[in-house]
Amino acid sequence: MDIGRIGSDGIGIKNPPGSSNPHVQEVLRVAHEELRQLLRQRAEVIKRIGTVKQTIVGLARLFGDEVLSEQLLELVARKSGDRQPGITKACRMVLMEAARPLGAREVCEQMRQRTPPMLLRHKDPLASLTTVLNRLVKYGEARTEVRENGRRAWQWADDASATSTTGWKPTITVAS
Predict the structure, then answer these.
(1) Where are the domains of the chain?
(2) What is the 3-state secondary structure (H, E, C) of 33-72?
(3) 3-state SS assignment for residue 120
(4) Spatial separation of the C-alpha atoms in residues 78 and 57, rounded to whole Å
(5) What residues contact residue 94 under an 8 Å CB cut-off, 6+ apart?
(6) CATH code that applies to domain 84-169
(7) How far out from the chain centre does Cα 39 lie?
(8) What's the Cα-to-Cα distance from 163 to each of 29, 30, 33, 83, 160, rounded to whole Å?
(9) Are 143 and 96 in contact (CB under 8 A)?
(10) H/E stretch holding 154
(11) What are the tens digits of pLDDT across the range 108-160?
(12) Does pTM top 0.70 for this prediction?
């Protein structure tokens, strides 16, 4: 994927023939803004889903699982009883709550503090976490940067973090 120059409006656009058309530029500007808004909304929805699930799980602990319907048990993943939350979800939460980009070792340490049994299931937890973090970048949920020491760090890709520490901005690429 080829990313072209950053235009005066801050949108990265490759210049194929006819791209100087103001109508094309306006469509791209609107699409870019909508994409950024949707990414912000997705982050908010993921956080809200986690909060609601935690509330339901807390109520089930307080009053017993029998207060939950079969369908609700499936939605909050308590049907199997001992099921642990997934490593991808845990990585998302660590990144969302982080105030700065985190290295893989820092994410690993955060997860060890929050959910110690989760990483015990992995032969090489650091490698597993790095794979998950890179997938989150691929999905557009996280971004990566290279630190001064040459190591990578990851940060949740909401709009606030997208411009905070590195000046990184999502870009739209138009294929030629």
Answers:
(1) 1-83, 84-169
(2) HHHHHHHHHHHHHHHHHHHHHHHHHHHHHHHCHHHCCHHH
(3) helix
(4) 8
(5) 102, 107, 110, 111, 114
(6) 1.10.10.10
(7) 9
(8) 18, 19, 14, 37, 6
(9) no
(10) strand 152-156
(11) 999 889 887 888 888 899 999 999 999 888 888 899 999 999 999 999 886 54
(12) no
CA–CA separation, 150 and 159 (whole Å) = 25
Q: How many residues does the chain have?
A: 176
Both tokens of 28, joined, read 């791209």
pLDDT digits (tens, 9 = 90+) for 1-41: 444 444 544 555 556 666 678 888 899 999 999 998 998 88
User: What single-letter amino acid sits at 110?
Assistant: Q
Task: Name which of 96, 88, 114 is nearest 154 in CA terms.
Answer: 96
Paired strand residues for 31 = none
- What type of residue sits at position 156? W
Q: What is the number of helices (H) and of strands (E) in the chain?
A: 7, 2
